[in-house]
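Hi both,

Apologies for the delay on this - the queue was longer than expected. I finally got the flavin-adenine dinucleotide-bound model through. Below you'll find the protein sequence and the ligand SMILES exactly as submitted, and right after that the structure tokens for the full complex including the ligand.
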Amino acid sequence: LKILIIGQGLAGSVLGLTLLERGHQIFIIDNQAPVTSTKVAAGLFNPITGLNRTKTWKAEQLFPFLKTFYPKIQATVGGNFYHELPIYMPFSSLEIQNEWMAKSGETYWKQWIDISDKDHVFEPFVNNDFGGMETKQSGWLNTEEFILKVADYFNGLGILKICNFTRENYSITQDKIDFAGTLYDKIIYCNGIGLNNDPLFSWLNFAPVKGDIFEIEVDKLPTSHIVNKNGFILPLTKGGFRAGSTYNNFFDDPVSITPKGFDELKEKIQNILKTEFKILKHIAATRPATKDRRPLLGSHPKYNSIIVFNGLGTKGVSLAPYLAAHLADFIEQKTELFPEVNIQRCMKNYLPEHQNV
Ligand SMILES: Cc1cc2nc3c(=O)[nH]c(=O)nc-3n(C[C@H](O)[C@H](O)[C@H](O)COP(=O)(O)OP(=O)(O)OC[C@H]3O[C@@H](n4cnc5c(N)ncnc54)[C@H](O)[C@@H]3O)c2cc1C
């Protein structure tokens, strides 16, 4: 098929690579927004997430898949963006410690966690009075480097163009999309929070979440692990650490840094670390998230050739490879979409005023 992808963030890059590999003819446009979710993200992939530390949705499928996907892409496009690394998670109470001690003996949990034997290594730096555990199958993707390398690769193939996609520069004719004088079979929205501005999809349960990140210096903090305790500290390959992050549903501007974001994140990091740290840089961006915390995949109900691949929220790195393959299967008519990610779940909000757009 001849497919136009809008947006070359994490979603558009992963989907573009997936569709290319399957032999489709793709073309990607991106408006080069200077600050985006992908450019700011920490890029962690972690099977145990959330305040209650639950196993992430479909972890059994997502994690083996990403573990093959990113290294394969790295071998193709070059760079050093994929890093497997355990996450050291201090327990917050004796009760939680007991709970995870019990779980760590169960066969099911053994594939994801171990009780850590590194408590003494982190003790001088991290608040870990109750000890901690470590995740397996975790790590981080340098998302900014990833999309830069993929952009070089796409440019080499002549399939990437800097361009702003608007309602005025395309039209729909007989199940095809005419964009800038070329006809496409499908057009796929991978436009991150840009989806907010598109009347075609205003009925989706999109709910972007702003977040802040610091780059920090912490003297002698071990770099063998990412540390995570209601916030994370991630050792960077170039030296120093990345620390994050905040979650704000209400904000005036999606990309500006604010004193509130600064204070909130500083407090989070102070709760993790016993030692002093120096803040070198503060950045912020907004995650393309949804109210039910599940991605948005599927065809527009009126225009079948307009497809969305968005809503990756806080977990784009782990979700994108597997769901891009899933969406490709759907486009090739090999499968129905999982109900949890299918935009059909928002149809109750698709009212007459949306149908005339
Ligand atoms: C502070 C913070 C921390 C995060 N940490 C993590 C983490 O640890 N792990 C994790 O997995 N995820 C994390 N994320 C989330 C992650 O960034 C997202 O899940 C993912 O990057 C979203 O990618 P995307 O391609 O959907 O959106 P984006 O990155 O927003 O990309 C959209 C692209 O579309 C382009 N575009 C938009 N509109 C148009 C248009 N009209 N025409 C042309 N191009 C257009 C934009 O320029 C952009 O390049 C974090 C995000 C933030 C903000």
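Main takeaway for now: The longest helix spans residues 59-77.

I'll put the files on the shared drive as well.

H.
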